[in-house]
Amino acid sequence: MAEKTVSYVQMKPKGAQDLGNIQVAPEVLEIIASIAASDIEGVASMRGNFTSGVAERLGKKVHGKGVKTELAQDGLAIDIYCVVNYGVSIPQTALKIQEQVRQTLLNMTSLQTQEVNVHITGVQFEMQHPSE
To answer: Which residue of 21, 77, 96, 110 has the fewest CB atoms within a 10 Å radius of its CB?
Structure first.
């Protein structure tokens, strides 16, 4: 079986004493970003993959779906995949997602994001109920 390697993000808050290292798992950053993006008005859902869809159908809540993080030499890059509601301004909604994710990660982890890329993967239409 293939072993999954987890590369943790090293953090050092400004003004902190040298008491040791702080490491944050990439999954934690994905959960924070996913919740921040979901809170934006106009975002219908976050796009997951097959395994997260199966897990949700079995009753498990998947918080980090629709987010991919990548730590490179020049900083943290985040990709957000989401579905928006019909009728919202896509550019304005995407900008709000970028700002919210960047600010939330900064507040919670003191990490500066190099880029937050928003991918709109679909549009959610309102479900109309048949008239009786």
So the answer is: 21
